[in-house]
Amino acid sequence: MPKLLLVATGGTIAGSAADTTDTSRYRAGALSTDSLLAALPEAASLGQITAEQPFALDSKDMTPIHWLALATLLRERLAAPEIDGIVVTHGTDTLEETGFFLHLTLPRTKPVVLTAAMRPATARSADGPMNLLQALACAGTRDAAAFGPLVVAGDRIWRARDCSKQHTHAPDALGGVDAGPIGVAIGTQVRLDHVGEGAATAFAGVLPNEVPRVDVLSAYAGAPADLIDASVANGAAGIVLALAGHGSVPADWLPAIGKAVTRGIPVVRASRVASGGVMPQANFDDAAHGTQACGRLTPWQARVALMLAISTGMARNALQETLLRA
To answer: Is 256 a residue whose pLDDT tops 90?
Structure first.
């Protein structure tokens, strides 16, 4: 049987409310790993399971400091011969950011599977127990390692880099925009419909001790350019612009962007539009203005990649290709 590690970070999947019909007013991360596993006697048939709980957070309170601690823990556990696969429980609100950070920083030697829930563990028809069972089953599937970190929820399996929260409260809130699931779970039977690429990302070889501040600034009708100036003045080491359309830059933002770039602060163009991404030189001369395009990344993913690029000393001329391949 596979030897599986459950790493709990809190979230709704470990949430508790006094009323079993209340799916909105509850305390996230209230239940321990022992409580979660005690409610799943079926998990014993999936592997030999041990557990750790580094945090017990509502994921809205997750920070890059937590990402670094979690990635460090997972890298150490993945190197241990007594562990075959890892499941990470997480809140849905910022799962897409943590998942992408782990996608960029973890080796692809063993399966790492994130799971979550939209209803607290105490609710009628709680979705967490089955999600956790299916995640454990996926973590015990050796072929899953080649995809990098995965997300399992609602009978579906996605690459963590492709999965985000698509609805504020529906049970099937997690999903992909430009990419669909790479497999399904039927009960605890896992089927992977694609072949994992295997290759790790540019950041998998080294994990920095800290990551710098990178701000995401949203463009909207009449948004002032001094948002960029304020970000620079307050210590941002990089800036991601969540722009309209295909990364369209407001004309009156150009001087502020130029000043930031001149000071050595990388500026990445992304889009506030959910699907499609931003390609280099599309609608804007990136080469002339010293900016980079995010490729298919969301603004939040581009922020994570830029934080790692800055902290690892990546050369500016390598950043564009890294964003496109992340």
So the answer is: yes
309 vs 202: CA distance, rounded Å:
9
Residues that are catalytic:
12
Q: Is the pLDDT of residue 143 over 90?
A: yes
CATH number of 3-192, picked from 3.40.50.1970, 3.30.1330.10, 3.40.50.1170, 3.10.20.30: 3.40.50.1170
Q: Cβ–Cβ contacts within 10 Å for residue 219, how many?
A: 21
CA atoms within 13 A on the CB side of 121: 24
**Contacts (Cβ under 8 Å, ≥6 apart) of 79:** none
Does 214-325 carry CATH code 3.40.50.40? yes
Q: How far apart are CA 233 and CA 318, in angstroms?
A: 26
* Domain definitions of the chain by residue range: 3-192, 214-325
Q: How confident is the model at residue 231 (pLDDT cuts 50, 70, 90)?
A: very high
Q: Model pTM?
A: 0.94
